[in-house]
Amino acid sequence: QVQLVESGGGLVQPGGSLRLSCAASGSIFSINVMGWYRQAPGKQRELVATITSGGSTNFADSVKGRFTISRDNAKNTVYLQMNSLKPEDTAVYSCNAQVVTFVRRRVTAWGQGTQVTVSS
Asked: Checking DSSP bridges between strand 114-118 and strand 10-12, what pairing results, if any?
């Protein structure tokens, strides 16, 4: 019913920047919250940032001041701008969306993930 596709991952040196994109498609009436999660090798998945339909944002303490999240409601797309990247940011980044379908069914959608590697 709902699909999320991430893009923009890659290899970057410490201090560099990357911009991730996540596009949602399918039977979408509205998306209340979109967010980014990440899972580093040997660690549990953690929440990175979220943004509501009204534009309210929330960030993990580890990325505050370095990452920004934004969304284009008309395109059902969320972005994660990552600056001043650190090796600790290396992880698979996944997009998440809290979606209401055209038949008013609430669903949670996940993307397949995109690899971000920060290394010198």
From this structure: parallel
| CA 8 to chain CA centroid, nearest Å | 11
Residue type, 61: D
Which distant-in-sequence residues (6+ apart) come within 8 Å of 1 by Cβ? 26, 27, 101, 105, 107
Burial class of 8 by CB neighbour count within 10 A (0 to 12, 13 to 18, 19+): middle
Compute mean pLDDT per 10 residues along the chain, 120 residues long, and list them. 96 98 96 97 96 96 98 95 98 97 96 97
Closest CA relative to residue 109, chosen from 76, 68, 81, 79: 76
Per the CB < 8 A criterion, the answer to whether 85 and 18 are in contact is: yes
**Spatial separation of the C-alpha atoms in residues 38 and 45, rounded to whole Å:** 5
Token output for 31: 């998306």
The Cβ-side half-sphere exposure at 2, using a 13 Å CA radius, reads 27
Beta bridge partners of 21: 7, 79
pLDDT confidence of residue 1 = 87
